[in-house]
User: Fold bis(5'-adenosyl)-triphosphatase from Parambassis ranga.
Amino acid sequence: MLLQTLLGFLCSVGALATENTTAQQSAVPLLLVSFDGFRADYLQRFPMPNLKLLYSQGVLVEQLNNVFITKTFPNHYSLVTGLYAESHGILASTMYDPVSHKHFNLTSDKDPMWWNQAEPLWITALDSGYKTAAMMWPGSDVVIGNRTPTHFLPYNSTVTFQQRLESVINWMLGHEKEQGVMFAALYWEEPDRSGHIFGPDNATAMAKALKEVDDNIGLLMSELKRTGLWGNVNILITSDHGMAQCSADRLIRLDDCLKSDNYTLVDLSAVTALIPLQDPEVVFALLNKCHAHMTAYLKKSIPDRLHYRDNERIQPIILIADEGWTIVQRGDLPRLGDHGYDNSLPSMHPFLAAAGPSFRQGYQLKSLQSVDVYPLMCHLLSVPPRRNNGTLTQARCLLAAESCGDVAMVTALVVGVLFILSTITGLFWLLRSRRSMGPRAFQRLQVDYDDDDDPLLE
Ligand SMILES: *[C@@H]1O[C@H](CO)[C@@H](O)[C@H](O)[C@H]1NC(C)=O
Ligand SMILES: *[C@@H]1O[C@H](CO)[C@@H](O)[C@H](O)[C@H]1NC(C)=O
Ligand SMILES: *[C@@H]1O[C@H](CO)[C@@H](O)[C@H](O)[C@H]1NC(C)=O
Ligand SMILES: *[C@@H]1O[C@H](CO)[C@@H](O)[C@H](O)[C@H]1NC(C)=O
Ligand SMILES: *[C@@H]1O[C@H](CO)[C@@H](O)[C@H](O)[C@H]1NC(C)=O
Ligand SMILES: *[C@@H]1O[C@H](CO)[C@@H](O)[C@H](O)[C@H]1NC(C)=O
Ligand SMILES: [Zn+2]
Assistant:
């Protein structure tokens, strides 16, 4: 009884604290920029003066806990849908769909069937009456749910960052006949490209690549200032994944374990996907004992925490290499840097920086789930989010209008009170069960305890 009253009271305090967060704000345009393969600790290892200037006036999330597999397409689609890969359907850069018998790769990715398991923000925001744009972001030019963003360009590596930026800024500004876009996503392929070629441990090569990335961020800031957008738009700068150093000394050759006529290879990378052609258990057994730095999983036993099982496009067997190890069928090391590995590895995490009228100034957060970026963006735009795997709970701390500390205090209070109450209940139960050993009293007490416990689980 007392517990229920107290819970009711605490809930209403919680509701009051969150009331203002649901209030409609007059939204300002949002620009989402991704620099592919920007490993979180590059920020500590390299100067990045422009990026530091940007987040000193805004916020920084030091590590973004991204989704498995830590590859470009799955993570870029997670950023704009808030879904794990198993729920948005873009599971790798190379896929096979056993239902349609279709193949997906980076040069053949336009078929809508691959993308239609989710809806990216540049489509959803159209329903709020907004114009939107996607510049070379994976999926930009795909017709998803029969629609495309208002403006888009397909990936074209010969178009410079400056050219991409100019188009995006013009789309944001609009003109007499065309309203400016409220949401724009902009993609740039560095420092991923250099990370693969030279490896993240090559300080000389990475310093050069990151200097160019930082110069591009400087250009972004100065162009936004020149056009009057700076201070009037919210900017998110982030990435899809990090990068690990590979080596010819860390090579796993599948041919050493079983002949390739045992399986059809679907994807060969840090996470290898294959279809067994012989008895799956036999093929699995051969792969399972193949190498100490490679873990084999039958689809049904892929760990829950990876959120990488519930989709027909996940193949019957996947192999996950340890950090920095490379799986090949035969031959030599293909690249000095790679990603795709377990998303719990810090080397696989990117960062998130943001600035603009909705953000706090000079605030830093240790980490955030990358699926939380989508509900944050929907909140910034006042767009009702589609079903997703993220929450606004942590991300709201980044916002100027939020009383994040208060919410944290209320949470701490609730946890504290519940801890004390459960201790008292526990002691009470102990005393009672010692006094009356009758099975009836014992049962009744247990039922009561369970009843009280229910609201805590919500
Ligand atoms: C909500 O915001 C208004 C003004 O913006 C403020 O006066 C009020 O105290 C806030 N309420 C809560 C519960 O934070
Ligand atoms: C990509 O997929 C298309 C269509 O299935 C195929 O024709 C093409 O050869 C593939 N390209 C690569 C590089 O695998
Ligand atoms: C890529 O961009 C270049 C330079 O802007 C252009 O000349 C070329 O036609 C584009 N390629 C494709 C495939 O659109
Ligand atoms: C690092 O990269 C540079 C190119 O920027 C290259 O000349 C050098 O050989 C690389 N060093 C190592 C140790 O791979
Ligand atoms: C499968 O791999 C094993 C081990 O390398 C080999 O003995 C066998 O011949 C392979 N092929 C088939 C069709 O089983
Ligand atoms: C992620 O969200 C989707 C859509 O709501 C849902 O179907 C799926 O079960 C969620 N995944 C997890 C692990 O909660
Ligand atoms: Zn890459």
Observations:
- The chain has three domains: 1-23+404-426, 28-83+118-246+342-401, 251-338.
